[in-house]
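Hi R.,

Here's the chain you asked about this morning:
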Amino acid sequence: MTPYLKKKIIKNAICWPFIIAGIVGVQIGNHYAKLYASNITGLLCPSTAADIDLANEAASKGNDLTVEIEEEGIVLTQNRNNTLPLAKSIKKVNVFGRGAIEWHYGGAGSGAVYTGSTRESDNLITALKSYGIEVNDDLIKASQNIQSKVSDKHTLQNETEITSKIFEPKVSEYSSAYEGAKNFSDTAIVAFGRYGGEGNDLMLEQITRYGRNADRTTLDFSPEEEQLLRKVAQDFTNVIVVINSTNQMSLRYVEEIEGVDACLVVGGTGCVGARAIPKVLYGDVNPSGHLVDTYPYDLKTIPSYWVTGYENLGIYQGSRSDNLRSFTTDSAKPGRGGDRGTTGNTRGGIDHGAGSAAYSDYIEGIYNGYRWFETADAEGYWDKAPYEGYNKVVQYPFGFGMSYSTFEWEIDKANLS
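And here is the predicted structure, written out as tokens:
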């Protein structure tokens, strides 16, 4: 054995135990650091009473700002017979609709809003109660008993069949609670909600707790929601629709159904923005918001409808998907790896093969939203069959919004030059 080899063996014999000990030490250290993270943080960065007070003050101001933004952003899209604002004497209301229980504070993924136990949050029901309005709890309990809350509906762990599913029950399932509501109050608020976002694109074909509706999209009212609205509009004196959606919806039935008096589009309200809703309902705040999307009667008039694949996805196959295969075959992502990856993508009854990658085509260019609807109108497109003109296509144009104020215009003087 050469001196060089002897030196190398000795060196390795000395170094490796230290390396192994170091690795083991790091692992043990990480374990205990994680276990006692809060204690370690408390010792290194002790919180003072002043820090806590400052944090509470910042949170309070943040909540105030959220409510202020919602107050200024709520859009009044309909107000027949000046039903709103409600009289202050109306102290009891019925709240219908699954949307009141599955309240949407924001979107999905990076657009989600955390409403855990350590943070204040209000939905429509709690906001009404905090304002001093008595809400018919029997209706709420009846809806909860029909379908328990889908606690993980908003997570990236679910596929679109869950995140886009509409859980509104049939009116008949409310049983005696519905009849009791007539005696509780003649005022009814009907809440409908939708949300979309990262990893949760809305489905082209509507899915409800009763099955699929190929003739309706996720952003259309479901047959059960339409039935509920028709029934409530028939049986109650004051009927107000609240749209809690992060996406534009087809609201044709709000306009078409006789007896639907008013409609508020409140968007995603953030943690506490729902507190603004009763203020608008009762006239403490004059709604001044304007829509940031064009709302057509029929979503098929939007170009993207016609290039939307099954569940809003197209599928790359073969070598084109290789660079994305690590994501689509990752079995560590529950609900994703199995369906889109290792066992192949079988959505829509077609097996696209293991490792197939999803994509979306955006072909609209600048003709998106109001640019499409207004340009098509200028070109006379909506005057052709079967559309019968712009006003038969667009229910609410970009920037639409009403208020409780009335205005009179008078031309005092005009000079022509």
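One quick note: The two ends are 110 Å apart (CA to CA).

Cheers,
M.
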